[in-house]
Amino acid sequence: MITAFTRRRRSAFTLVELLTVMAIIGILAAIIIPALSGSRERSRRAVCQNNLSQIGRGLMMYSDANGERLPLAAFDGTNSIWDLAVLPYVGNATNIMFCPSDSLLRGAYPNPRTYAANAIPEGWSFYRVPFGQVGSANSALRMSDLDFSKGDIILISERLGNSVEDRGYVGSFGFCTLDFHRSVVHSGKGGNYLMGSMAVKYMETNNAAFSIPEGNRGNPWTVYVGN
Questions:
Q1: Bridge partner list, 12
Q2: What is each CA distance from 148 to 137, 157, 169, 190, in whole angstroms?
Q3: DSSP string of 111-166?
Q4: What is the SS3 assignment for 203?
Q5: Are 171 and 84 in contact (CB under 8 A)?
Q6: 196-207 pLDDT, tens per residue?
Q7: Buried-state track 34-73, b at ≥16 Cβ within 10 A, e below 16
Q8: Rounded CA gap, 186 and 223, in Å?
Q9: Structure pTM?
């Protein structure tokens, strides 16, 4: 005879069944969560690439209006120049200066700036780089100075710091130049780079081009001045 109590007992899960379901959920979570995380990072990387593309268009318009010359990265240790020079040509959209993968800057500053220009500190005058040497008024190059037949060259990229103090904001000198630092903002492996050809490239820190000494053909930081 089947009683109501028997029916209730048969409708319950056994311990083995519960453990099996929990194991299946755990396996699915282990598969899905990394995939979702990777998808979010790919989306952030795409936004970053779009930011750099817009910055590139702004730089082209600036250089067209200024005898092909790029803006200086900074004239002194107080204010940056390159970002303020670009903004009027991109509708003053300060949000394009921030990479969404940059976790250090979220909520840290008004108008945060992840990106930095390929320029060098005062005293590094033996290199030719697009945005020149800090403190040297005429050291920024013209677009025609970038000889792509000898290798494309970095203009703008994310610059990594270890804390929010290593970050900058639009118009500030701090963190406005790359100083040959490779980006690791995206998944800790690499970063997006706006090149002189206006292409946006993702390069990991172990990219072979980075191993070419500065000043030599193919090095992405400096203009090659040899024959």
A1: none
A2: 25, 18, 31, 23
A3: SEE-EEES-B-TT-TTS--TT-BTT-TT-SPBGGG--GGG---EEEEE---SSGGG
A4: strand
A5: yes
A6: 999 999 999 999
A7: eeeeeeeeeebbebbbebbbbbbebbbebbeeeeebbbbb
A8: 26
A9: 0.80
Q: CB neighbours of 69 closer than 8 A, spacing ≥ 6? A: 63, 140, 141, 142
Instruction: Report the pLDDT value the prediction gives residue 6, as an integer from 0 to 100.
Output: 52
What are φ and ψ of residue 33, in 5° steps?
Answer: -60, -50
Q: Tell me the one-letter amino acid at 42.
A: R
Strand partners, 122: none
Q: Where are the domains of the chain?
A: 13-211
Residue 2 CB contacts under 8 Å (≥ 6 apart), including other chains? none
- E-assigned strands of the chain? 112-113, 115-117, 154-158, 168-169, 190-195, 200-204
Our CA angle for 89, 200, 71, nearest 5°, is: 40
Structure tokens at 4: 């109501």
Residues 118-143 have a mean pLDDT of 89
Angle at 152 between CA 145 and CA 157, to 5 degrees: 100
